[in-house]
Amino acid sequence: MAEEAGNPYLRLGYNSLGAFATINHLHFQAYYMAVPFPIEKATTKKITNLTSGLIISELVNYPVRGLVFEGGNTLQDLSNAISDSCICLQDSNVPYNVLISDSGKRIFLFPQCYAEKQALGEVSPELLDTQVNPAVWEISGHMVLKRKKDYEEASEENAWRLLAEVSLSEERFQEVKALVFEAIASGDDGNGVTLSSLEDPDITPQSLEETEAISKGSHHSMQLFSPLSSVCPNPSDKEHKLILRSGHSGETKIHRK
Predict the structure, then answer these.
(1) Distant-in-sequence, close-in-space partners of 69: CB < 8 Å, separation ≥ 6
(2) 240 lies in a domain?
(3) Which of 25, 27, 219, 220 is catalytic?
C-alpha cells in the first residue's frame, strides 16, 4: 500500500496485541502527515546487513529502542525481513509496533513492554493518569493527549519520560535483537546475515562527535511553538494532538494542533 500510494507523506502503522491493538487482529493504521516524524530523523547506527543488500540499523539517542530496516535489492527482500522479524516477536510473545515510511522503503520496528509494566504495577500513577496509550504514532512522535492539563504542560521532557517506559531495557533489547537476527537468517534462503565488523559503525544523520555530545545530555534541546488561538478553540475537547518535530539542527520542537 505504501509503495502503491507513492507519497512520502503517507505512513502506515501497526500495533500488535499487547502493544495497544484494540483486539487480536491485524491492527493497521494510516494517515498523511506533511512533516517528518521525529523518529524519521533520529540518529541510527548500522549494525547488520544482508547479502541481499538490506541494511538493519539501531536507533541511537531515542527514548524507545528499535530497529530500522531499509535497502535491499527488491521490495520483497525488505518485506521478507520485517515479516520474519514480526513473526519471531509474535512467537516469542514480545509486543511490538511497526512504522512504514518513505513509500515503503524504510520500516521501523519497536519491541515494547509498556502494557506488561502496567499489568505488573511498574508504571508510575502520574503516567497512568495521562491515559495515553503509547502505540506506534506516539512512539514515532505524534502524541494524542487526553487531558487539557497535559496538553498545556506538554514538553519534550514529559514526552521522553512516557516513551522511556515503553522501551525494553538494553539487556532485554539485545536478547530480542538476537532472536530477530536468527529469524531473518533462517528465512533468508541461505544467504545469511552479516554483522557489521566496522570499528566505527555508520552513524546517520549525525557524526559520532555530535552523537557523543548529545548522549552527555538527557535529551535534545527543545523549542516550543506558540500555540495558535485557532488550534484548540474548545478547551474541553477530549483529545489534544501534539507533534514532536525534529528541526534541521536536530532539536526537538513541539507543535500543538
Answers:
(1) 54, 55, 56, 78, 81, 82, 85, 106, 107, 108, 109
(2) no
(3) 27
